[in-house]
Amino acid sequence: MARMFRVLGFWTLAIGLMALAGDMKEMALLFFFQTAAFVVLGYMNLSERTYIMIFWGYMVLSFLGFTYWSFFEMEL
């Protein structure tokens, strides 16, 4: 499971670089922060249960944030 967090770090880095190339600086910074967090967590060698709980927390937080942003902040 620790390896999967490093894989998530790789993909968030790729998305962050593409956002930076597309001149979306805020999105790029968000994904660079996620990259750093995933890579650090990937090298902490926590238990499987801890990794799964962290991932579920990340998913809940990101889905709530996306839902809030798309419902309240986006213009039609």
UniProtKB/TrEMBL annotation:
The entry's keywords: Membrane, Transmembrane, Transmembrane helix
Membrane-traversing stretches: 31-46, 53-71
Source superkingdom: Bacteria
Protein name (record): DUF2626 domain-containing protein
Organism: Paenibacillus oceani
